[in-house]
Amino acid sequence: MRFFHILKPSKAFYGYISEETFLIPKREVVKMQDSMIIDLYFERNDQAIEETKAKFGRYLDAIAGNLLRDVRDSEEAVSDAYMRAWNSMPPHRPKVLSAFLAKLTRSSAVDILRKNSAQKRSDRYAVSLSELEGTLSGGCVESEMDVKMLGEAINSYIGGLPKDQRQIFVMRYFYLDSISDIAQSLGRSQSYVKSLLFRMRQRLKEHLQKGDYI
Amino acid sequence: MKKAETMLDAVGFIDEAFIAEADEIRGKKKLTSKRKILMASAACLCVAAVGYGVCRAVIPGNSRDDRRWEYYEMSGTDNSSLDTVALIPKWEEMSITQKFYELEFQGGRYSVGGKPLASYEKVGEKLGSATLSGYDVYEDKSYTASAEIYGIEGISDECVAAVKFENDDNYYPYYCFTYKPATLGEFCEKLNLRENLTTGGVYLTGMKNGKDDNATIYFENVSTEKVWEYLLKYPDAAAAEDYDSMWLSRKGGMSANIEILGIENLSISFSDDGWLVTNLLATGKAFYIGEDAVEEFIEFLVDECEGVQIVSDAGQSGETDSDSDWSGWVSSPSKPVPEATE
Question: Cβ of B7 and A167 within 8 Å?
């Protein structure tokens, strides 16, 4: 458990001011270990949500914001994710709490996107959809069970990829990160990322066809 | 349910371990140098524009930690990455290089650099012809285009080729991203960086400034000659073989420009543990110049150059969470986090 203080400067342009000028009343933040937070959920302790917010709030906001591009919608998605987390723990005990919460947030955000009008949907969502469209061409997946099986097929495909390629795939299609953000994270060109994604989609399509998923 | 939406839902079932694995890379974003350089450059422009010509050290001290820097704030850059997301244009709206951005030629793979060459006088002899492939993501169609490939005077075609498409008068530089130099000297020689490279202001991160021990200090007036004198004078510095798997904690860096190729605002950066890193030629490359070399350069900056601490006012109402794995997503990397006095 670590303690640290959060301080911020108070004026727009400082010139030279004595250092005390920059201090504002300090705030202490206590960060809990993931296992302790999960324990709180299992104890049905309301503090579980507060601790989750303190540790992962900004991360989850960023995930929802990536998909929704709307502050209110994002807040709704994250709130819904907290509720889903509360409802699923127990019995579920996630191995990686951050990733589990990320999945819940993404799922909530996608639900909100579906409710939204086409005009309100983000460009990023539209582009990611259009990229994935071809991967499932000819396929017919209707039920939730089919979607889950398809998810498992995708898991088996990306499980066989080199780590760096798998990371790119997840960043693009799970987090819906932009090509430029991915390229920046990797220190690679956008062309490199685009071409790699293109090849991965082609191979995923072959993988799905081979396994009779589509 | 539409097919694409089905796929998007199915991706939601990705294993949590893979999601956590991707987060490792996403966290790196806060350390990428390009954004810091852009921010530093923006601050520099602001300084010039509003006439804040007060970039001087206030209390020069004997040691690095004693040095005090003035503060300069910039606005509106904090969430820039969220505002710069672009929709992939329709095929018919794309430029020729957007359509055909990758070239395979003489065993190397090249990607487009962007702007056409500014001066055709530098176009060298014809090296051959090639067919480039493109893909329309909206229509799921593939296309090809024929082009002539030329060299560029003074620059090795192992690194860069000039591509001239049919019915287009321009020569576009394509950078070889499969080229792997053995040493820093080879890299500098093949790009003729002695003549072609210019660098911008230099930033240092993790600096102490008063009570702030994580300040970003920006030095505007550092000549390219000084960069050569301190960082690029090691021709035998070996290139990292496994750059992609390296975790480099950038201590500082600068923007790098090669005007002849239309390269602007790429970066040269350096780490505490002695690595010089650049993204010139579209991919990252690291050369080991040694910790002493980096330390000497930092000492030169601190002792002899004038700098300012860059402060972002964006997101002041947000938290500054130096211990958070996710802080790079929403907070400025240069936001000062002074320690509290008890």
Answer: no
